Predict the structure.
Amino acid sequence: MAERMKRFAIATVIAALTMFAYPQQGNAQITERTDKEKKADAATEKAYDETVKREKGTGPAVKSDPWQTIRPGNGDNPKR
């Protein structure tokens, strides 16, 4: 009786492991991109690159201090 339970348990574990591995294979179909999709991607990349260059060319970003009204002035700092 114990031998039958042991075989059943092993078979169940093997079945469970193969069930989890099966969906990972999926439908591994390789899809080719059309020329139209490639051109649309290239146009998007070009627009992105131009935007990045334009943003970099505007000069350094202005530094702002959102806490300037909350912090005490320089003369109010206690020495540590």
